[in-house]
Amino acid sequence: MKPYTIEIHNDGLLVFTINRPEKRNAINYEVMAGLEEALLLAADDQVKMFVVTGAHDQAFCSGGDLSSFHHLKTEEEAYTMLNRMSNLLVSLLFLPKPTVALLNGTAVGGGCELASSCDFRIARTDVKAGFIQGTLNITTGWGGGTILSEKLLPADAMKMLMEARLFDTVDLMEMGFLQSTFSGDPIENCRKFLNRMLVLEVEVLKAYKQLYINKWKYTGVQERIEQEVRNCSVLWQGEAHHRQVAKFLNK
Ligand SMILES: CC[C@@H](C(=O)O)C(=O)SCCNC(=O)CCNC(=O)[C@H](O)C(C)(C)COP(=O)(O)OP(=O)(O)OC[C@H]1O[C@@H](n2cnc3c(N)ncnc32)[C@H](O)[C@@H]1OP(=O)(O)O
Q: What are the tens digits of pLDDT across the range 80-90?
C-alpha cells in the first residue's frame, strides 16, 4: 500500500493525505514522490484548491523520517535530501491555486515547514505544533524558516523557530500561524473554512494567488530558501545532530 492517498473531490478539492500513522506521518522518499505526483495533478482545471493532511488523528506530520534519513552523514548527502523536499515546498508555495494545511494532529519539525508552505493552516483545537529542529542541533532544512518569515510577523516567526518547542492552538492562533481551529471531522471543517472561496471561479482564485507569487519572486524567496537549505546541510553533518537523532531513535 502506498504511504499516501490523493483524492480529487467534485467540489474541486484535491486532498493529499500522508498515510503513515504508525510513524506519525513522517516524510520519507515515497511520500515525497507522492507529493510530486499530487502537485502535477493539481494543474488540472477541475482542481480548485490543494489540501494536505495526515491519516488518523494523532499526527499531521512528524517531519522528516529520522530512521530513513539517519544514514545521511555528510553535508552533500543531507543537501540532496533537503533540497528535494525544499523544491516541493517551493512548488507548493508557488502553486497558482489556494493551498491548505489541515492539521488533524501534531505537526512537528518538517511537518510545520510543510504546513507553512500552504496559504492557510487550520487545526483541530487540541493539536500542538512546533519547529523543534533546534533540539536536534539543526535548523529548518526544507526552507520552512524562510517561508514562515513571509507569513508571520518577524518576532512571532523568530519565537517559533528559536524556542524550538510545541505550542498549543491558542498561542498558534495568536501568532497568526493558524487561521482557524475546529473540532469534529477535519474534511467537513476544511470545507466550512473554504466555503466562500469554493464558490468563486478558479481564475479569480488564481489571480489573487498570483499577487503573492509575484511578491515572493520579487523578494527572492527561492534564493533565500536555497541558502537556508545549505546552512542546514552544514549543521546536519555535525556530531551533535547525529547524537540527538540517535537518542530519539533509541528511546
Ligand atoms: C529531517 C528534516 C528536518 C527538517 O528539515 O525540518 C526535520 O523534520 S527534523 C524533525 C524530525 N522530527 C522529529 O524530531 C519528531 C520526532 N517525533 C516526535 O517527537 C514524536 O513522535 C511525536 C511526533 C511528538 C509524536 O509522539 P507520540 O504520539 O508519543 O508518538 P511516538 O513518539 O511514540 O512515535 C510513534 C512511532 O513513530 C515513530 N516516529 C515518530 N516521528 C518520527 C519521525 N520523524 N521519523 C521516524 N519515526 C518517527 C516513533 O519512532 C515511533 O516508532 P516505534 O517506536 O517504531 O513505534
A: 999 999 999 99
